[in-house]
Amino acid sequence: MMTNLFSSFDPLSSIMGLSLNWTSTLLGFLFIPYLFWAMPSRWSLLWSSITSTLHKEFKVLLGTSNPGGTILFVSLFSLIVYNNFLGLLPYVFTSTSHLAMTLSWSLPLWVSFMIFGWVNHTQHMFAHLVPMGTPGALMPFMVLIETVSNMIRPGTLAVRLAANMIAGHLLLTLLGNTGPSLSSTLLIFLIGSQILLLLLESAVAIIQSYVFAVLSTLYASEVN
């Protein structure tokens, strides 16, 4: 039972001896050509509207008028949301449910923000360690607390995304495994509940991608 439950998260499963699980991460790039059609589809127009809205919001968070500064975070949102939705398809490996993938996104971003901030805005970074109005006796503790909270940022970003992806997939798998033992009447309710849960997972896929991108943008804005 436990083996079947977690088999969908196993990156070592293979097809004809070839381990192709992680290549599903790149499937999102197959949708890029559709954005350049002479007559764009409704989905292309919808996606263009979403990305333009994200560009405007991220420009406000970063406090910059340069549209090039938001490309990284909009691209990050696009990559995550593509992988989250692909993971909802049957027999498609969910790479965002693994810390190896989510941490490989959050850790390099956090390290680059820290290097940029401490090299170019050292005094500003020191000021972030002690909030305004902090009593002198509490300053050493506030520095320690702020340092720890800053150090765990990449881990919280990675764990939040991976845990939310795993939780929904496990619920779908558990409900699916109970199907063969149910009667026809209960099976109808089971299918209905799975459809509702799948809609909830679709919303979670978008929300978690948005949260990851927004938090990364906020972390970048602190070092400007």
Automatic annotation (TrEMBL):
<keyword id="KW-0138">CF(0)</keyword>
<feature type="transmembrane region" description="Helical">
    <location>
        <begin position="125"/>
        <end position="145"/>
    </location>
</feature>
<keyword id="KW-0066">ATP synthesis</keyword>
<keyword id="KW-0375">Hydrogen ion transport</keyword>
<feature type="transmembrane region" description="Helical">
    <location>
        <begin position="187"/>
        <end position="220"/>
    </location>
</feature>
<keyword id="KW-0496">Mitochondrion</keyword>
<dbReference type="GO" id="GO:0005743">
    <property type="term" value="C:mitochondrial inner membrane"/>
</dbReference>
<dbReference type="GO" id="GO:0046933">
    <property type="term" value="F:proton-transporting ATP synthase activity, rotational mechanism"/>
</dbReference>
<keyword id="KW-1133">Transmembrane helix</keyword>
<keyword id="KW-0813">Transport</keyword>
<dbReference type="InterPro" id="IPR023011">
    <property type="entry name" value="ATP_synth_F0_asu_AS"/>
</dbReference>
<keyword id="KW-0472">Membrane</keyword>
<dbReference type="InterPro" id="IPR000568">
    <property type="entry name" value="ATP_synth_F0_asu"/>
</dbReference>
<dbReference type="InterPro" id="IPR035908">
    <property type="entry name" value="F0_ATP_A_sf"/>
</dbReference>
<keyword id="KW-0812">Transmembrane</keyword>
<feature type="transmembrane region" description="Helical">
    <location>
        <begin position="12"/>
        <end position="37"/>
    </location>
</feature>
<comment type="similarity">
    <text>Belongs to the ATPase A chain family.</text>
</comment>
<dbReference type="InterPro" id="IPR045083">
    <property type="entry name" value="ATP_synth_F0_asu_bact/mt"/>
</dbReference>
<feature type="transmembrane region" description="Helical">
    <location>
        <begin position="99"/>
        <end position="119"/>
    </location>
</feature>
<dbReference type="GO" id="GO:0045259">
    <property type="term" value="C:proton-transporting ATP synthase complex"/>
</dbReference>
<dbReference type="Pfam" id="PF00119">
    <property type="entry name" value="ATP-synt_A"/>
</dbReference>
<feature type="transmembrane region" description="Helical">
    <location>
        <begin position="71"/>
        <end position="92"/>
    </location>
</feature>
<keyword id="KW-0406">Ion transport</keyword>
<protein>
    <recommendedName>
        <fullName>ATP synthase subunit a</fullName>
    </recommendedName>
</protein>
